[in-house]
Design brief:
Length: about 140
């Protein structure tokens, strides 16, 4: 029987929780459409000939689209101090600010900077999901 090597990093935050955050962050990013103008969304082609432009009531859709962001904000706010610091450190790792070997430094820095605006800080990053995913990959989690 072969034993698996012990992980160098013992995460307080469950990697599956981070994966949930990744999914929600990517859903939020996908919902942002930079070519949105005057309530019109992308052109839809039917049968190769006709075109239809999706029109919507912006307020009704905006409210439902924001639910994912609200949920993610609440989930991040519910993290304890260590989990929140690790989440921020994962972002920094995924963004390339730190290397995997500097994990403890990143967590220490995040703990020192820790405040009650962690969700606002993280949700302000358009590539949050990608950074978290890269951070987990770097740790092999």
């Amino acid at each position: 029987m072969q034993m698996q090597p012990e992980k160098e990093w013992d995460l307080s935050i469950d990697p599956d929780t981070v994966r949930l955050f990744i999914l929600k962050a990517k859903a939020i990013s996908a919902g942002v459409n930079e070519d949105y103008e005057d309530g019109g969304d992308r052109e839809v082609e039917f049968d190769g000939n006709g075109h239809d432009t999706h029109q919507h009531d912006g307020l009704a859709e905006e409210e439902s689209e924001n639910l994912t962001e609200i949920e993610l904000r609440e989930l991040i706010n519910d993290l304890n101090v260590d989990e929140a610091a690790e989440l921020v450190a994962l972002v920094w790792l995924g963004r390339g600010d730190y290397e995997a070997g500097e994990w403890q430094e990143a967590v220490s820095e995040a703990l020192q900077r820790g405040n009650k605006r962690t969700a606002k800080y993280l949700l302000g990053m358009p590539l949050l999901g990608d950074y978290l995913e890269s951070g987990l990959d770097a740790l092999g989690a």
